[in-house]
Amino acid sequence: MYPGVFICYYDLSQYYESFVLYSTLIMTVSIPLVLIILSTIAFKNVRRIRAIPRQERRQLRTMNKKDFQLLRCLYIQNIIYVVCSLLVGASVCYSTTLHMEALTLREQAINNFLNNFGAILHYIPYCTSFFIFICVSKAFRLEVKRLIFKMVRKDLTTVREEENNQQEAVKDNIEPNHVISTINIKA
């Protein structure tokens, strides 16, 4: 060893490795399970709110259209998270079962593929939120549109007025008036 060079080495015992693997497995199964349970409870509550007519509620609707859109987006996010987490959990289970054995080249290739695929799947739920909200929620799309127009310094109300005028012109089959000069001026 060279002077001034320190190597920190610790022996990974079998207990430590099995603790890490099994705790990871428990977390990848328990978190999606809790999400499934809470989502089903929330879904049942929303169905109960929608099923009760307004006259029987004796109050105003406690949830408006934006709230239902938000809940729909959150359900889709939970579904994507659960699917990706369960696939990662399956990869961890496979790695755990093969961990103590001597692996053939084929098993090593499958294990490496599953680990890399699981790593990619792990990040998918965190990348899809924006796209889910854009696809599902009309209110979110309008807010994004308003924000973009605000950044471009164009007022959204004037854009809506222009769109409405164009739609009315199309409905009435009225073409915009164009003035064409037919007078020739000779200088």
TrEMBL record:
Task: Give the transmembrane region(s).
Answer: 20-43, 79-100, 120-140
Q: Which domain of life is it from?
A: Eukaryota
Q: Where in the cell is it found?
A: Membrane
Sorted keywords for this record are:
Membrane, Transmembrane, Transmembrane helix
The segment(s) forming the G-protein coupled receptors family 1 profile domain are: 1-133
Q: Does the keyword Membrane apply?
A: yes
Q: Which InterPro entries match?
A: GPCR_Rhodpsn_7TM (IPR017452)
Q: Which GO terms describe its cellular component?
A: membrane
KW Lyase (keyword) present: no
Main location as per UniProt: membrane
Protein name, as recorded: G-protein coupled receptors family 1 profile domain-containing protein
Which organism is this entry from? Adineta steineri
